[in-house]
Specification:
Largest sheet: 9 strands, antiparallel
Number of strands: 31
Helix content: 25-40%
Strand order of the largest sheet: 4-5-6-7-16-11-10-9-14
Distance between the termini: 80 Å
Radius of gyration: 27 Å
Number of helices: 20
Strand content: 15-25%
């Protein structure tokens, strides 16, 4: 009996096996365009030098299994920065949106995923399952659902490998990807009959019921498989159609179709009528392994057509073997991860940092050239899941280190407004998703404008933002705002006016009146910022004034935001620490205490209402003494707000506690679902000792865990030096910026993006005078 070949080499050492394989299409075609073109918008920065001048390769620090369990919803499979193709293992009883859970049996490897998200799933399309034996004895649906043992997992950016064991037989699997293509390599035991089952109806199914409506598959005369499928449900309920071509590295010895557990020869399969998990339909290809045990598979995806999928195949993977595609993936990640270089910290801290940086480059997906929803030659991005999460940390990070990419994303949102009528807060596969709070595309536009991003039509963007701020949406659950009552009340929403229709009011649906007030207010502040940049001084004044509406919900007796009725009576029996979860409650996914920290534009006014600096510091301390929730976004800014009261040492203390206590190098090492990178981007910011207030042109200065950080920015390199920083010496005692004394506990965007050096003197004393003066604090609306 032939033994399984030796372990697959480490990804950076993978090379061609030397076995001659007959490509179905053959020839390099347009392969020279390939992967490099998909990363062109990012530029070519190379790697930042190390402190001693040596090259730094952070790719080796990344551990893609961070957060795959414990509700983190990450996938271990490979992808490019913002790449749509995301082949990854799906398991029996996988997590809600990733489809994966450790130590579970493997269903196979689907080509598309969202990752690090809450809510419902999407994608999980065209799953491939390797299995040995005669197809006459295999019951496909039963075999797939039973799964295979999944062991020997390894992963790095752009690569995943594992061994699948079924009935004593084993298959080695390896995956890599381009922007729109997934590449698989399967190594079987010699002498086995090797089969690849392709489920054309697969999807990550959760309580919202993503399911196929109709799917088709057919083999062409060369033995390549062409697939299309229309799917509905999942996170945003909307419908999408996806196409793919599946090309094998050598012609199958046999191929056919299967329906449920019935196998049939033939070139075509069709599934229709709301096919669900109990009824799977697919294709199979069979290969002899006597002389060649390896089968490589290239899956090219398209939202447009089969013809377009073939074009993507030709441009990105034709003429390339697995190793060549992997090498290109490595280059793309070297560019993305090389934009921040760090020295110092522990090995685990560096690993969590660079893994977090990778996971912050996962979504939205770059679907440039795949815009089937309207005709445009502009860069196009889909799968904003969701801006309510990512505006706080992910997009400001991209603004700093990936400015061209971020500008494309914002302009794509403007294009979406032009062609759909609204700028979305949440969108996936051509359909808007449920809007959790306000219209947070407003924040991204403001952030881009105040940080001087070019390539954005700000005139058209302001038109979209004015519509958000002034017009009543017919369906504010997916676009725009509920504006009538908000405007008539001067910028706040009463409980009894917070629902979508009179019937809802009668049933007591409160409709997030308090949390939407706070979010609409900040959205208005951001609209005012853009208005000012566009020369609309009257509009800027109107929106700025309305952004103060939250003060109508400030209850002095509780020192917190408190819902109230249109007659100004307070909500009775109010507990500011009650955690609300529903769409129809006064707060969305948070408590009144937590949401009271979300006044990003006017922290000084909150300080005044609480009773001054000292009382505000105590007020924040009360939050962190058992009420802060790092699993979700509403209070993510809270730890940095001490700086507004002249207490940067408290910020250092709280952020260090969060980073050390809520992030660990483990499969369940993230605080909760990553919300498309929102929580891992928080780690990146905290670890380098900066943090954005999204929509405003400054960064708080915190407590770096690294002795030196070098960021590749528009103006060159911005360096943060914190020699001697440690778990005890975590407080800034003094600072210089480009050789000059710097007392402010914040930096302007221009100071950072222009390049330079910030030197922080660290120590154990939390009573340093640094950053404590009135003039050392960031501005607030009420402070001018």
């Amino acid at each position: 009996m032939s033994e399984l070949p030796e372990s697959i080499p480490a990804p950076e050492r993978v090379a061609s096996s030397g076995v001659t394989r007959r490509s179905v299409l053959g020839g390099a075609g347009a392969a020279a365009f390939g992967l490099a073109a998909t990363a062109a918008t990012a530029g070519s920065l190379g790697l930042l030098p190390g402190a001693a001048g040596a090259a730094v390769n952070p790719r080796s620090e990344v551990w893609p299994f961070l957060g795959v369990d414990g509700g983190g919803e990450q996938i271990p499979g490979p992808y490019l920065p913002f790449g749509f193709a995301k082949p990854s293992p799906d398991t029996v009883g996988g997590d809600a949106t990733s489809g994966y859970r450790s130590h579970r049996r493997c269903l196979g490897f689907s080509q598309t995923h969202v990752l690090g998200t809450g809510g419902g799933a999407k994608y999980g399309n065209f799953r491939i399952t390797p299995i040995t034996g005669s197809m006459n004895s295999i019951r496909p649906t039963t075999a797939i659902k039973a799964g295979a043992g999944l062991t020997d997992e390894s992963a790095e950016p752009g690569y995943y490998g594992a061994t699948l064991t079924r009935g004593g037989d084993a298959v080695k699997a390896a995956l890599t990807a381009t922007r729109l293509c997934a590449v698989h390599r399967y190594t079987f035991r010699a002498g086995r009959t090797a089969n690849l089952l392709v489920d054309i109806t697969s999807g990550i199914d959760v309580e919202w019921g993503q399911h196929p409506l109709s799917c088709q598959a057919s083999f062409n005369d060369s033995g390549a498989l062409e697939i299309s499928g229309t799917f509905e449900g999942g996170w945003n309920y909307g419908r999408y159609k996806l196409y793919a071509v599946v090309v094998f590295s050598r012609a199958p010895d046999a191929y056919g179709m299967w329906d449920g557990d019935t196998v049939a020869t033939g070139q075509r399969a069709r599934a229709a009528g709301g096919v669900r998990e109990t009824q799977r339909v697919g294709a199979y290809a069979t290969f002899d392994t006597d002389t060649d045990q390896v089968v490589e598979v290239r899956v090219a995806l398209s939202f447009k057509s089969i013809a377009r999928a073939w074009e993507n195949y030709a441009h990105q993977v034709s003429g390339k073997d697995f190793s060549a595609v992997l090498s290109s993936a490595h280059a793309a990640w070297d560019d993305a991860l090389g934009r921040i270089a760090v020295d110092g910290g522990t090995p685990d801290q560096r690993s969590v940092f660079y893994t977090s940086l990778m996971q912050s480059h996962a979504m939205p997906h770059d679907l440039t050239g795949e815009n089937v929803w309207w005709s445009s030659r502009a860069a196009h991005y889909e799968d904003y899941y969701t801006i309510w999460d990512t505006f706080r940390t992910v997009h400001p990070l991209l603004t700093l280190i990936q400015p061209r990419r971020q500008a494309e994303m914002v302009q794509s949102l403007v294009e979406t407004y032009i062609h759909t009528g609204w700028m979305p807060d949440a969108r996936i596969a051509g359909n808007n998703g449920q809007q959790q709070g306000g219209t947070n595309g407003d924040v991204l536009v403001a952030d881009a404008m105040v940080k001087d991003l070019s390539g954005i039509d700000y005139r058209k963007a302001y038109e979209a933002l004015r519509k958000n701020a002034d017009e009543e949406s017919a369906d504010p659950s997916v676009a725009g705002r509920r504006m009538t009552d908000y405007k008539s009340n001067g910028g706040w929403i009463p409980i009894d006016q917070s629902t979508w229709a009179p019937a809802d009011r009668q049933s007591g649906w409160w409709g997030r009146s308090a949390s939407r007030t706070l979010e609409y207010n900040y959205n208005d502040f951001c609209v005012a910022t853009v208005a000012r940049g566009q020369g609309d001084t009257a509009g800027a004044a109107r929106y700025r004034n309305r952004s103060k509406g939250w003060q109508n919900l400030w209850d002095p007796s509780t020192s917190a935001i408190r819902p109230r009725y249109s007659n100004r009576a307070w909500l009775g029996d109010y507990d500011k620490d009650r955690h609300y979860t529903g769409w129809h409650e006064p707060f969305y996914e948070g408590s009144g205490r937590q949401y009271s920290t979300f006044v990003p534009h006017d922290t000084q006014k909150v300080i005044d209402l609480v009773g001054g600096d000292d009382r505000y510091v105590s007020w924040l301390d009360d939050l962190f003494d058992g009420h802060y929730n790092h699993d979700n976004e509403p209070d993510l800014l809270a730890a940095w707000l001490y700086i507004h009261a002249g207490r940067p040492a408290r910020t250092a203390l709280r952020v260090r506690d969060i980073l050390a206590g809520r992030y660990v190098k483990a499969r369940d090492g993230l605080p909760g679902n990553n919300d498309a990178g929102a929580l891992t981007a928080y780690y990146c910011w905290g670890a380098i000792g900066l943090f954005p207030n999204a929509g405003q042109p400054y960064y708080y200065i915190g407590s770096p865990i690294f002795t030196e950080t070098r960021l590749k920015v528009a103006g060159g390199t911005f360096t943060i030096r914190a020699a001697g920083t440690s778990a005890t010496d975590k407080y800034v005692q003094g600072a210089t910026l480009n050789g000059r004394t710097h007392n402010r506990a914040w930096l302007s965007h221009r100071e950072v993006a222009g390049g330079g050096t910030l030197v922080l003197t660290m120590g154990s004393s939390d009573r340093s005078a640094w950053g404590t003066g009135v003039n050392d604090r960031p501005a607030s609306l009420s402070a001018g």
